[in-house]
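Q: Okay, next protein. This is RloB-like protein from Ruminococcus flavefaciens 007c. I've checked the sequence twice, so it should be correct. Can you predict the 3D structure?
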Amino acid sequence: MAHVERNGKRKTRDQMVKRRVPELGYYFIVTDTEETEQNYMYGLRDSIPKELQGKLVIKVIKTKSNNLVEEARNLASINPQYGEIWIIFDRDKVKNFDEIICQAEDKGINVGWTNPCIEEWFNA
């Protein structure tokens, strides 16, 4: 492209950086739930307006509840556009419940738990 053709089309550094910054505000939910709970989470996502569904990412991982905080941090570090990171787990299956909540809060991760089970959330 000749110099004359580029004249006036060059972007400033600020304009170029803005183009590369991903949109913030995505919700990233990491859960260790079973298949039925996974279906409830996807059902929740599918029940919100279509324009918001893309901002909710649900990752169901096979790990112990004790590892959820670290797994959430690892997964979110791969995709830093997630504005709010959440872990959700069953309260009745966890012995060190308070410790997990403290770990998550220290790392800036939001926590949700079901007590006695996730089905109660959606049937309430």
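A: Here is a summary of the prediction. Strands lie at 26-31, 56-60, 82-90, 110-114. DSSP finds seven helices and four strands in the chain.
Q: Noted. On to the next one.
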